[in-house]
Design goal:
29% helix, disordered N terminus, Uridine Diphospho-n-acetylenolpyruvylglucosamine Reductase, domain 3, nine-stranded antiparallel β-sheet, 500 residues, binds flavin-adenine dinucleotide, Vanillyl-alcohol Oxidase, Chain A, domain 3
Length: 500
Amino acid sequence: MVIKLRLCSSAAPSSLEALQVDGHFSFVQNEFAARDFGNQFHFLPSAVLHPKSVSDIATTIRHVWQVGPGSELTVAVRGHGHSVQGQAQAPQGIVINMKSLKGQGMQVHTGKFPHVDVSAGELWIDILQECLKFGLAPKSWTDYLHLTVGGTLSNAGISGQAFRHGPQISNIDQLEVVTGKGEVVICSEEQNADLFHGVLGGLGQFGIITRAKIPLEPAPKMVKWIRVLYSDFDTFARDQERLISAENTFDYVEGLVIVNKTGLIHNWRSSFNPQDPAKASRFISDRRTLFCLELTKNFNPENADKIEQEIATILSELNYIASTLFMSEVQYIEFLDRVHSAERKLRSKGLWDLPHPWLNLLVPKSKIHNFAEVVFGNILRDTNNGPVLVYPMNKYRWNNKTSAVLPEEDIFYMVAFLPHAIPSSMQNDGLQFLISLNNRILDFCKTAQLGVKKYLPYYTTQEEWKEHFGPQWEVFLRRKSAYDPLAILAPGQRIFHKAI
Ligand code: FAD
């Protein structure tokens, strides 16, 4: 059942009005801070801070810290508000709107160790655009770039590059963090490492990330973008695992499950070219369950021929349905910002601001076949109102000191169910139906003891959180009492409750 609650704003905490800040607090018209991409939870804060400096954030946190446990005030940071279950909301508390720090001194450093120094309120798309001016780019991405640095680093930040480079939280040189006591701390692998590891994947529990230093690599100009189809999950998974373990491989490996769709290949034709048009036109996708492997290879125009040969060699070792090889060639930025094009189309049809009952799971390699058989073969009836992604990652690319929670095996799969729901519908695109589908998937994972972990986790009781963290719970608790002992931060995650 979805909790849809709208709390009334309590009287504006008059003590906040007296605080000296460079930015400002707003006490009315804060409805935006009670919304997120999930569009299922709506908790109104008492105040929103629009900071103009890091010291505004530290001043506010110190104020709440000094008021002490007697007050129920909590603080949530809002990046771009693309959480799906109210994680960036603060019922009757203070929301810090990180976007008002955007644009404050993004600095690209070229040289031997190129990196960019950014405010955590920056969107990844803006960072990419700035870095490309210097021929550079970060290495690890999310599928969608209109998310803030602080928002993705509080989770992990994963996409089809993670098998090679690790998640975004494995690609950070240094952070500036304001702790739950209002201290401003610089941290890295070498300096205040416990806080550094804690906030990476830390669900906003130990501090507010205010700046990040992100290492860069030379950016390619172009991308060869490839799609091939499989009718058999085992062959699809075997090829994916081969690609993420090989030396000579692609730069990006993802996959999609396609259930009960018609005209699939016809739709691709607007942007992808079949390698063999005659054979491709005879391929009929209708209503079967298919698995699409999506791959890219980066290149610069001067080495296009060499890259084509490399691609042909790697593809020759794969076992996809031969007539279903489709290719496209796009600029690097166009590929990385691809979901934004989908966003524009969905917005034009009024399908972007709907509720999003998303479910993201990390499934151990040894259990993915059982998972696929039951979930893709049985529970999932169609994938017509949102993509279902499936792709494997290598655990050794993740730093095991961070707060991110992973399955126990060396290879695990990201399985993401990303539907939008039509609120009034009682059909299989309705919110209640999709939530019950998610519950069936979760029940199956639990009963079959698959060792699955939720990505972008959402739980409502501390018992469930303890089970989620498993052996990492003790470290998580210790870090909470060290850096945010009053449980002021990120109440929307529902892990800790401020003692009053
Ligand atoms: P918000 O929703 O604003 O905040 C998320 C959480 O982080 C909150 O608890 C908030 O308090 C906390 N937080 C935010 N900023 C900070 C900060 N500076 N310091 C401390 N805590 C902070 N994720 C992936 O890994 N890969 C993907 O490919 C991917 N694709 C997505 C596509 C779409 C369309 C959407 C909506 C989400 C996607 N996500 C993906 C999930 C996304 O990474 C997370 O939801 C992320 O938290 C959103 O960033 P945000 O800036 O909107 O954060």
